[in-house]
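Journal club side-thread
Mid-discussion, someone asked how the predicted structure for our own chain would compare to the paper's figures. Pasting it here so we can look after the session.
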Amino acid sequence: MAACFTVQKKRAVNTSDLFWLTDAQMARLEPFFPKSHGKPRVDDRHVLSGIIFINRNGLRWRDAPREHGPHKTLYNCWKRWSDKGIFAKMMMGLAADHCEETTAMIDATYLKAHHTASSLGAKKGGVVV
């Protein structure tokens, strides 16, 4: 049996639809980026803007717009920075600027049971608790 594959062309992206960090935002985040160790660094604005764009739109890494750079670079930076705790340090640093002592947690989990779910146990002879 032959496998059937479909090839999708990359959709053209209007550059006004892309997400770009501003100069002010980059200035606040600059202290958190890792330092260069001899190798020239990629443009942090392109990479971080690309990572944010991917996460905001729920895209696969391969679907990253070309304007943000190669998808492999975006993924590798995201993985490396995540492992080093760069994003956690950014969030803690930005939160510290507001000097709030409280912690707010948000859980986006939402479960919805079917309207017959509560009566299933009784119909099958089970015990409804």
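Post-session note: Residues 1-12 have pLDDT under 50 and may be disordered.
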